[in-house]
Specification:
two-stranded antiparallel ribbon; 60% helix
Length: 247
């Protein structure tokens, strides 16, 4: 999650009583509301918004690469490494969009929403898709991976609603994140990359870390205990007592 929400809430510069500044928000709203052709929305996008789109692009390409891995040999890891590599690139664009917004001193209400949607794809759906591709494929596994994604969705929605009410520092930025930010899922992405390198994948030389509890042939399909990491991460994201200081 980038710092664009602070920009979108008017922290680009300090307005005076006589010359209010909205960083281009009013202009953008007028452009979006205007009925001026099929592609008129493109005019309303700021440079930072386009960078945010690249974050979402990386997440979607990661998902497709995970799907390609599922279609091939389980010991041919090329597509899996590509899937995992796209996610850090998404984080790079997630950082850059906020920097560009502050550099250009242009806030964007649309950019704030784009940022959350792109984060959900890159740091929620993409890691869960990679975990599924690596072997967390039982019915209960997929339900628990869905729980992780929904926690990320809820956490991002809460952030958009509460960001203006969180305590601010002298520059106007929120002092902390409430719950772990969704990009911290890159820790699990790194762990999955290690698992791939060691053959801890379905069909690999060592199988999924921790094996399966209950057996995949049981009536309830079994569950891989390692999926509990995703459950715990999801709970940490929606926690209201965990406060992560902002850099």
């Amino acid at each position: 999650m980038s710092l664009r929400s602070s920009v979108a809430n008017g922290v680009v510069s300090k307005p005076t009583n006589n010359t209010p500044q909205d960083g281009g928000q009013e202009k953008q709203k007028k452009l979006l509301a205007a009925d001026a052709g099929h592609f008129s929305m493109i005019k309303a996008l700021h440079l930072a918004d386009l960078i945010t789109e690249l974050n979402g692009f990386c997440g979607f390409m990661s998902i497709l690469s995970s799907m390609r891995y599922c279609l091939g040999s389980p010991t041919s890891y090329g597509h899996m490494y590509i899937a995992l590599a796209f996610i850090p690139f998404g984080l790079f664009f997630d950082f850059m969009d906020g920097k560009v917004a502050r550099w250009r001193k242009k806030s964007s209400l649309m950019g704030q929403e784009l940022d959350s949607l792109a984060d959900l794809i890159s740091f929620g759906v993409a890691p869960a898709s990679a975990a599924f591709a690596l072997g967390l494929r039982t019915t209960l596994d997929t339900l628990l991976l869905s729980f992780f994604v929904l926690c990320g969705l809820t956490r991002l929605a809460r952030f958009n609603v509460t960001v203006s009410t969180l305590p601010k520092d002298a520059t106007g930025k929120s002092k902390y994140f409430e719950g772990t930010p969704i990009p911290t899922s890159l820790c699990m992405v790194g762990a999955m990359a290690w698992c791939v390198s060691q053959g801890y994948v379905v069909g690999g030389k060592r199988g999924v870390v921790g094996g399966v509890m209950g057996g995949e042939d049981s009536w309830w399909g079994g569950v891989h205990p390692i999926v509990g990491v995703f459950v715990g991460w999801g709970c940490a994201m929606v926690s209201r007592t965990i406060h992560i200081p902002k850099p």
